[in-house]
């Protein structure tokens, strides 16, 4: 069992039994048969291969549906897959920014310059992509909170709990261990340590209305020199004061007072929102995670709840336009963040 972490990568193995199938010098060895990874993370499908002497590998690729369809050329995977292997031994595939629809069985295929020189490694790697959710059970006075996934994260990952946007507790158990607030204003959320940016949606534990911040986009990729809008909404109370800040600051600092953003930042929205941060004339040093905080007459939203991560790239495109959403990137494959 292994929990593998690198940057924003979360890879969970159900088992690590190498699978070797082949004959007459052919084989593909998958390091794992089953992987459970968080939505939005990066995963490596690791494998190695062998082929008969006298053959020269001419083509290698991974597929999910038909043996002739390279997912590297599938528009559904554009900008999301990178082949990290070679034509000698290594056949590792990396999938980034995982989506639930990426859940599938992946197989590797190689072709050589000899007649009959094709081989597909079976059974492949079954990838399951899951998000985090907070499940609320019990009665009004004895609520129980559980951080759940659609597949099992193994090796005892550490779960992080947030209450009203504030870091609250850490535990190897997916169940929140302390008494749950009976206050209708309070909201809870969970994450896995090391991947806090992939947290669950905040849930109200008493009724349907509570304090929570919901970001329109969790990640945005835009071009240097363009304009971006980062938006969110809040629940329950009307706000008395609000501001946006960068999470990499030691203490939250209102961006409108930051000299590095002078003349480039504008806020819109009031009461419950939507609240929007607009940054113009973007610079690569603007790449950061942006969070929103607010106050009411008797409440202040915490500062540790993850926000929206902005990536600014200097990569050029044929498009001269203001970029607001990452969907544009998915359509034109630019910019590349």
Describe this entry's structure for a reader.
By secondary structure, the chain is an all-beta fold. It folds into 3 domains: 3-129, Sandwich (Immunoglobulin-like), CATH 2.60.40; 131-208, Immunoglobulin-like, CATH 2.60.40; 211-337, Immunoglobulin-like, CATH 2.60.40. 2% of the residues lie in helices and 40% in strands. The chain is built from 1 helix and 27 strands. The strands form 7 sheets. Strands 1, 2, 5, 8, 11, 12 and 13 form a 7-stranded mixed β-sheet that branches. A hairpin with a 5-residue loop joins β11 (104-112) and β12 (118-120). Mean pLDDT is 84; it is low at 1-22 and 317-333.
What is the topology?
Elements: E1 3-6, E2 9-15, E3 19-21, E4 27-30, E5 34-38, E6 43-45, E7 47-50, E8 57-63, E9 81-83, E10 93-95, E11 104-112, E12 118-120, E13 125-130, E14 133-137, E15 144-148, E16 159-163, E17 166-171, E18 187-192, E19 203-204, E20 213-215, E21 219-223, E22 228-234, E23 241-246, E24 265-268, E25 275-279, E26 288-295, E27 308-313, H1 327-332
Brief summary:
This protein is mainly β. It has one helix spanning 327-332; strands at residues 3-6, 9-15, 19-21, 27-30, 34-38, 43-45, 47-50, 57-63, 81-83, 93-95, 104-112, 118-120, 125-130, 133-137, 144-148, 159-163, 166-171, 187-192, 203-204, 213-215, 219-223, 228-234, 241-246, 265-268, 275-279, 288-295, 308-313. The strands form 7 sheets. Strands 1, 2, 5, 8, 11, 12 and 13 form a 7-stranded mixed β-sheet that branches. The protein has a 4-stranded antiparallel β-sheet with strand order 17-16-18-19, with no helix packed on it.
């Amino acid at each position: 069992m292994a929990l593998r972490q690198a940057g924003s990568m979360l890879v969970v193995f159900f088992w690590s039994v190498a699978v070797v199938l082949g004959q007459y010098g052919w084989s593909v060895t998958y390091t794992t048969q089953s992987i459970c990874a968080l939505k939005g993370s990066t995963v490596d499908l690791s494998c190695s291969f062998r082929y008969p002497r006298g053959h020269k590998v001419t083509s290698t690729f991974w597929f999910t549906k038909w043996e002739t369809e390279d997912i590297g050329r599938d528009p559904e995977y554009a900008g999301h897959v990178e082949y990290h292997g070679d034509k000698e031994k290594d056949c590792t595939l990396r999938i980034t920014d995982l989506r639930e629809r990426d859940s599938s069985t992946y197989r590797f295929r190689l072709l050589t310059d000899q007649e009959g020189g094709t081989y597909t490694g079976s059974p492949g790697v079954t990838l399951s992509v899951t998000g985090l959710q907070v499940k609320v059970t019990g009665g009004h006075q004895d609520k129980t909170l559980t951080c759940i996934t659609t597949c099992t994260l193994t090796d005892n990952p550490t779960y992080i709990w947030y209450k009203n946007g504030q870091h609250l507790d850490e535990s190897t158990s997916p169940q929140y261990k302390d008494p749950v607030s009976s206050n209708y204003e309070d909201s809870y959320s969970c994450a896995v340590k090391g991947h806090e940016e992939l947290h669950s949606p905040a849930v109200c534990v008493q009724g349907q209305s509570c304090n929570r911040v919901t970001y329109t986009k969790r990640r945005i990729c835009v071009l240097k020199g363009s304009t971006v809008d980062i938006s969110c909404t809040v629940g329950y109370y009307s706000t008395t004061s609000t501001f946006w800040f960068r999470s990499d600051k030691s203490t939250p600092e209102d961006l409108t007072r930051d000299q590095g953003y002078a003349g480039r930042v504008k806020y819109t929205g009031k009461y419950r929102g939507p609240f929007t941060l607009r940054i113009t004339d973007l610079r690569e040093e603007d790449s950061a995670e942006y969070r929103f905080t607010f106050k009411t007459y008797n409440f202040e939203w915490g500062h540790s709840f993850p926000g929206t991560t902005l990536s600014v790239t200097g990569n050029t495109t044929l498009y001269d336009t203001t970029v607001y959403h990452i969907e544009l990137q998915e359509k034109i494959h630019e910019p590349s963040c």
